[in-house]
Each structure stands twice: as structure tokens, then as C-alpha cells.
Amino acid sequence: MENGGLSSTMMHYFPRGQPVDLRLWIEILFDAIGVASVGLALRGLALESSGAVGYIILGIAAVAFAARRWLPLTSVTATAALSLAAAAVGQNSIWMWLLTQACLVTVGMWRRRRTALVACVTVGSGMYISAIWADGQLPLAPYSLLTMAWTACMAVTGIAIRLHHDYIWSLHERALALEHDQARDLRQKVIEERIRIARDLHDAVAHNVTVISVHAGSAERQLDRDPARARASLVEIRDAARSIITEIEEVLRILRDDQSPLLTSLPRLAELEGLVQTYRELGLDLVTEIQHLPEDIPETVDLAIYRLVQEGLTNAHRHGSGTATLKVWSTPDELFVEIVNPVGQSPSPHTTGWGLIGMRERMASVDGTLLLATKNGSYTVRAEIPLARVTRRDRP
Fold this sequence. Notes:
By secondary structure, the chain is an alpha+beta fold. Helices cover 68% and strands 10% of the residues. The protein is built from 12 helices and 5 strands. The protein has helices spanning 3-13, 22-48, 52-66, 72-88, 94-110, 113-133, 142-222, 227-256, 272-281, 299-319, 354-365, 387-394, and strands spanning 285-290, 323-330, 334-342, 369-375, 378-386. Helix 5 (94-110) runs antiparallel to helix 6. The chain is rod-shaped.
């Protein structure tokens, strides 16, 4: 059953989410039938001027009937035996047998099918014997056979009600499990979205904060000696701050507007040369080898590579010695990025930091692999992305 069909069935049977136990309502009905049967039996005893034995048998049967919910097998056995006893002393046992039939249905509703079948055989045999012995019916007379058929119908009715109850509760449990799975998936999606937003904000801010830091230091040094250069640095700071605001506003716009395209205004590999130039202006001696890349690179890979290069060059500028090499190339099936920079005086952040965590997450999102290693005094960032696999996954 599909989720929509399951939900419709659930709403039909229990619109508030909690299934109603039909057996309890049937037991209330049986209570009413039992009270009526005992009342009619008492009236019959009074009309027949029966002795104390008749009242004792009826009283015990009434108690056994009242206990059927807790002791159904005992109740059906006791009421069947008392019905035979009533017939033996010459009383009208029809109302006693009605109590027995209700107890038999209760056994089918609350106990296993094997127990219900045993009770059915016991009650059926008792009614058959009563019809022949007390009522003077022939063994194959319709009345005698009807008593057994009626008993079988009562047992089957109880079993059917139990099966219906089990089916409804299985639907309920499946609905609860489905709701739990949906809530878990929603929590996972929220967590993933929070991570993605944090990653984008980090990438949007980290580079421009580096630009602001460098130019702020330059403006401080040149303020008295060369006001023109200090003013130029302040202009760069203003432009970097505007860039931060623009990228943050773009992320917020995407969050507020469900219809806005997610990647249309985010940076692409086509802007890689401009990114490289900003780091050169910051004083990073950067050597680049960028091949002509395919035009049909998936958008997710496009953004992931740009952010990887941005974070890698930011770390090279912060923690390196002032020089770095950037290589970007591709084959028909894979795209490669490699950033190498000599390690400076500050410790290399090759195992910690939110930026490196973001790099790993971005590569994982496009089925890529990321290598971060320090060897022979140089820090290497190398990424490999399988273009064919990502292209197939992004294809509608």
C-alpha cells in the first residue's frame, strides 16, 4: 500500500490518529444482551415457580458471564455446563445458551484461534447433546444440526473480529512508523540544510574578510606616509564589505524565496581568473595552470570547485609563505584541482577548521575525493571529481 492509500485508510478508521477497539463496543452490546437475558430467565423462573436450584444456576451463570472479559475460556465452559444443568432440571435453557454464545464470541475476539476452535467444539457439542437429550430432537434433525452450525458461526464471528482488530492495529503501527521515518528524514534534511547554509556563509565571508584584513593593515601603515595608498586600501575594504553583504543577502533571498533558483547568482568556474587576481593583489605570488574546462560541467560541481579553490587560496595566503601553485585540469571522465603552497611559520590547518570541513563536505556532495597532506615542507590540496557519475545523477 502506498503512503497516500495508507493515510486515507488511517483517516477512515480513526480520524484522530488513535484506532478504536471495536471489541470493547461489542462487549458493551453483550453486557446489554446479558442483562436482558438474565431478566427474561428470571421472569421464566418466576412463571414456572422453579425452586432454589434454578436461581442458583442462573446466578452462577450470570457471574461467569460477567467475568468473560478476563476469563473468557472459563466463562464459556461454565455457562455451557450450567446450560446443560438447567436443561437437566427441566428449566428453559434458551437464555442460558444465549449467554454461552456471547462468551464464545468473546473467546474468539480475545484469545488465539486454536483456543476459540476448542471452545467452539465444546459449546457445539453441549448444545447438540441438549437438543437431543433435553428437547427430544433426532440426531440428524434440522434443529440439532442448526445448533452446531450456529455455534460455529459465533466462533467464526469472534475470530473475524479479532483479525479485523489486528489488521487495523497493524495499519496504526505502520502509520506511526511512517510518521517517525518522515520526521527523522525531515530532521536530517534540516541538519543538512543548516550545514549547507553555514558552509556557504563561511565561503562567502572568509575570502572577503581576508581582503579586508590585508588592506586594513596596509591602510594603517600608509595613513601618514602615503594617504593616497591608504585611501585606495580603504576603497578595497569598502568593496570587500559590499561583496560580503551582497553574498549574504543572496543566501537570505534564496532561503526566503522557494521559487528562486539556487545556483544562478552564485560564483562559477568562469569567474576563477577574477578570484585568482584578487589573491595576487593581496600579495600572494600565485602561479596558475588552468586548462580549458568542459562547458557542460554540472552546476553543483561548478560551485564546489570554485569554493574549493577559494578556501584553498585563502589558507595558502593565511598560513603559507607567500607563494602558491594552482592547477585545474580535466579528462573526459574526471576533473582535478591541485593547490600547493610552502608551509609558513603558522601551523598548517590541514586537519581542523570549518573551512576544511566545508571542503570535505562539498567534495562528498559531488562524489569527489579530497586529499590534504603536508610533505617536504609543502601543503597540498588535491581534489578529484568523477564528472560522468555526477552528470548522470543530476540529469532529470
